[in-house]
Amino acid sequence: MKIYNYDTNGIYIGCDDADESPLEPGVFLIPANATTVEPPELDSEHLAVWNGAAWGIQDISLAVPKPEENEIKEQDEPKTQAEILLERIELMQKAIDDLVLNGGI
After folding, report:
1. Domain-by-domain residue ranges, the chain?
2. pLDDT in tens, 61-73
């Protein structure tokens, strides 16, 4: 039995043969992100997208938006263990100060 696989966004990624159940002869196992419904024939400008019940067709240009230059952000340098510990100590000190000032201790 043929199955048709799709990614977490429902976009068709290929077909495979379903495995037969070792416990129930004649019953085939359909894994997650797969269906037995064959996707439509497409040209190079479109994608097949599974919606949970049927295949739809989506224009490729709508599937993957290109990031704008100003949307690309540089990542911060990773913090050292000492910096992380200092931040935690500061948070703990603030929490203790709040408890003392508000009569919690």
Report:
1. 2-60
2. 776 655 565 555 5
